[in-house]
Amino acid sequence: MAQGLLKKAPSTKTSTSSKRPSALGPKKGARAIAPRKKKLVDQKKLTKKYSAGLIRKTESSLAEKAGHLEMLQGGKKSKKEGLEMKDGKKK
Q: Taking Cα atoms as reference points, which of 15, 48, 19, 14 lies closest to residue 32?
């Protein structure tokens, strides 16, 4: 085995004042500026409503195709449970 101590890399001292705090700068996520004009606000609301509807429809169609997945709501299992609840009996 080799004898002696391992050489350590020289440490460079960095001052804490040179580092920028993590609170500064843009946050992660949506970086869109919200509209202020009434017409644009209403347009944004409609867009959000329609896109949410499209996403819901897409997810439900995917759930039907992959009905064995329990995470997706609207699959085969949830339809069976819905029919059982209508009949008034549950397993």
A: 48
